[in-house]
Amino acid sequence: MKTIILTACIAFASLGSVSAKAKVPICLPCESIETVQELPKDSEIAKLIGKNVNVAYMYKQYGALWMSLWNSDGKYVLSDEGNRSYVEVDAQMAKILKEKHNIDIETAGSPLSFWKKIGGKLVFLIIAGILVYGVIPSKDKEVKPVKI
């Protein structure tokens, strides 16, 4: 009798539906900010803005499964220490960065790593190639029967 009551209690307690699905992370597009160089806390730019900032690179990232497939609209900005907010760089700030900190953001290229620029594309193309190769039917060889 105790077994039946215990089984009934467990059955009723487990009736709630659980839908724990793994979500595939997809960015279409996600704004990303990466710190390029930390500025000193007593820099002129920190005094001009009123808080400590770092030189950062902001871009839109298109990707899936933590792979960057495409990056666009990259520009240099000044971000706070946690990269949660940013300030656009105007001509006065660009001049201060060039003179005081030897950072020329007007002629600098993209500071993104190889993986962020190209690596995700390579992995994506390899996986797509394997999938296409697996879908294409192979031609069967004609086998002629041999009399023994």
Can you describe this structure?
The protein has 148 residues and is an alpha+beta fold. The chain has one domain (22-134). It has four helices and four strands. The protein has a four-stranded antiparallel sheet. The protein starts with a helix and ends in a 13-residue tail after the last helix. The mean pLDDT is 81. Residues 1-22 form the signal peptide. The chain crosses the membrane at residues 118-136. Keywords: Membrane, Signal, Transmembrane, Transmembrane helix.
Distance between the termini: 71 Å
- The total of beta strands comes to 4
Domains (count) = 1
Overall geometry comes to flat
What is this structure's SSE topology?
Elements: H1 2-13, E1 26-38, H2 44-49, E2 54-64, E3 67-79, E4 86-88, H3 91-100, H4 114-135
Antiparallel strand pairs: 1-2, 2-3, 3-4
